[in-house]
Design goal:
Elements (H helix, E strand, L loop, with lengths): L2 H11 L4 H12 L18 E2 L5 E5 L7 H4 L7 H12 L20 E5 L12 H17 L5 E5 L1 H13 L16 E4 L2 E6 L4 H4 L6 H15 L1
Parallel strand pairs: 2-3, 2-4, 4-6
Antiparallel strand pairs: 1-3, 5-6
Length: 225
């Protein structure tokens, strides 16, 4: 079993945050009407992708009725629809949609994960919940030997990436790099690239367009070499 498989098993078994355990399990039990016939995952959601990835795509946390339902990050929700369509256009995914584990999606050169692995109420983990989860991201960084670029989807992911890279022993530049769309920083052995999160709040308002996300991913591909 590879390091990523071991990390996956450890993530899935985690019950370190009582508030998040209660919430994710309640959402999985008290389903919304549109998914009433589906069996929810209801556990922490591991990262997934190419073990030889040069690019890591980092989100905030699984969506209550997305990853918390399907068991795969960004799978089965609108943010994921937007993200995977872009990954497909940029040659990092073999298909443009992702609706369930086992739907045939394969990533090439990319690995997708999140700062927090449980769906949080109102999409807001506490600082303590973030910190309890960060070691999983640090472990993933170490288990991806070809990794060169981290694309942070939103300010929370940007901050989480900095903390996880520091947890791996790298020095954080001073002053600390600030998040912005298409912002870049060199942090330890990685290029950190910022991107607005593909939430409906951003995509429906035009704050993040398909062309903008594609441009960030193409830049990440170039940086990954």
């Amino acid at each position: 079993m590879g390091d990523l498989d071991l990390i996956r098993d450890e993530v899935i078994a985690c019950r370190a945050c009582p508030r998040l355990v209660e919430w994710r399990e309640r959402v999985a039990r008290d389903k919304v009407a549109r998914f009433a016939q589906e069996e929810y995952w209801g556990r922490p959601v591991p990262g997934f992708g190419d073990p030889a990835a040069g690019i890591l795509i980092l989100g905030l946390a699984p969506a209550a009725h997305g990853g918390n339902r399907t068991g795969r990050i960004f799978t089965g929700d609108r943010s994921g629809d937007f993200l995977f369509a872009s990954l497909h256009r940029c040659g990092l995914a073999n298909q443009a949609t992702s609706i369930a584990r086992g739907d045939g999606l394969v990533l090439s050169g990319a690995y997708v994960t999140a700062v927090n692995r449980c769906a949080p109420p109102a999409n807001r983990p506490t600082p303590e919940e973030r910190d309890r989860c960060l070691h999983f991201l640090t472990m993933e960084l170490a288990a991806l030997p070809e990794l060169r670029v981290v694309v942070a989807l939103g300010a929370y992911a940007w901050d989480g990436a900095l903390r996880a890279i520091a947890g791996a022993g790298a020095a954080i530049p001073s002053p600390k790099p600030r998040f912005g769309h298409a912002s870049e920083a060199t942090v330890g052995p990685y290029a950190l690239v910022g991107c607005f999160h593909p939430s409906q709040q951003n995509t429906f308002t035009g704050r993040l367009t398909p062309d903008m996300l594609d441009a960030v991913l193409h830049r990440a591909i170039a940086l990954a070499g």
